[in-house]
Write a structure and sequence with these properties.
29% strand, elongated, 314 residues, 5-stranded parallel sheet, alpha/beta, single chain, 7-stranded mixed sheet
């Protein structure tokens, strides 16, 4: 246990990324002296993307990690205290709210902004991780643009996978949808659109065994696909692989305390970032499974800070 005295703040921000950093900028500028606690992956999912072309304000291509560094430095410059620690337990049942970090450090807060984000589920193949950001992606809206007139594959069978496959047909010459079963989980209307799209080929009862690519610079050149009924393995030439088997929001910490949907995303009031507990707000991918963009996360971080400020002043 650490002997550090309890740290108290008006606003405790848990998690970084565009939501957490933007919340920190707004809270600090409102003279609330926020504390932002970030875990082992400061900056969140954007630090795993390379080229960012859709964040407003930058005419040239910028790098995801650089954008997160800039947001962090901005939050610091206006008066945010940044602490690397992993919040391991939290009590939202009485105020001030209490959180304890792995370091043993205790935090008390008059309001809390949760921006712990979500993580894409991966196939967990060594070859997939090796080519992450070099042809393997978990976000078609982020990276589809880089595959103009190329052949890509999407793994998954739910709404997300079908939507990603449809989206990719805007750029790619051919999209192969690879699914473990012989029918999709996606809603019927989406399936109908998918089947009508001439650019999409569905590969049923199959899973990706290995991602193949060439050395420096790393580029995906193909995949090995195994038919789960026959165990036949076939090699396919593709230029990009999109994994769309879902995301997991980082909300285990808040179970039994905050309302969440069946997938674990925090539920907030309409047109608000407020959770079912007044003074506790959720921003970014931890509550948003629809848009999942850096700019929408940043927007919600702003909303959360403004709502926290209003809550504290009343």
């Amino acid at each position: 246990m650490s002997d550090n005295p309890t740290k108290h703040t008006k606003v405790l921000i848990i998690g970084s990324g565009p939501a957490g950093y933007t919340a920190a900028v707004y809270a600090a500028r409102a003279m609330l002296s926020p504390i932002l606690v970030y875990g082992s992956a400061p900056g969140g999912q954007l630090t795993t993307t390379t080229d960012v072309e859709n964040f407003p304000g930058f005419a040239d291509v910028i790098q995801g990690p650089w954008l997160m560094d800039q947001m962090r430095d901005q939050a610091k410059a206006v008066g945010t205290e940044m602490i690397e620690d992993h919040i391991s337990s939290i009590n939202l049942k009485s105020t001030p709210f209490e959180a304890v970090g792995d370091s043993g450090q205790k935090y008390t807060a008059d309001s809390i902004i949760i921006s712990t984000g979500a993580q894409a589920r991966w196939l967990n193949l060594e070859s997939e991780q090796k080519f992450r950001g070099f042809g393997v992606s978990a976000c078609a809206t982020c990276d589809g643009f880089f595959f103009k007139e190329k052949v890509v594959a999407v793994v998954g069978g739910g709404n997300a996978a079908v939507e990603e496959a449809m989206f990719l047909t805007k750029f790619a010459s051919k999209v192969k949808l690879i699914h473990r079963r012989d029918e999709l989980r996606a809603e019927k209307l989406l399936q109908k659109k998918l089947m009508e799209n001439k650019k999409i080929e569905i590969i049923w009862d199959s899973a990706v065994d290995e991602v193949i690519g060439d050395g420096e610079p790393k580029n995906v050149t193909g995949i090995k696909v195994k038919n789960l009924k026959t165990n036949n393995v076939e090699e396919m030439k593709i230029d990009g692989l999109f994994i769309a088997i879902g995301h997991d929001p980082a909300t285990a910490l808040f179970k039994e305390q905050l309302d969440m949907d069946k997938e674990g995303y925090l539920i907030t009031k309409p047109d608000s970032t407020e959770t079912n507990i007044p003074g506790v707000y959720a921003a970014g991918d931890v509550k948003d499974k629809t848009f999942r963009q850096a700019v929408t996360a940043a927007g919600m971080g702003c909303m959360a800070a403004l709502e926290a400020e209003k809550y504290l002043s009343s």
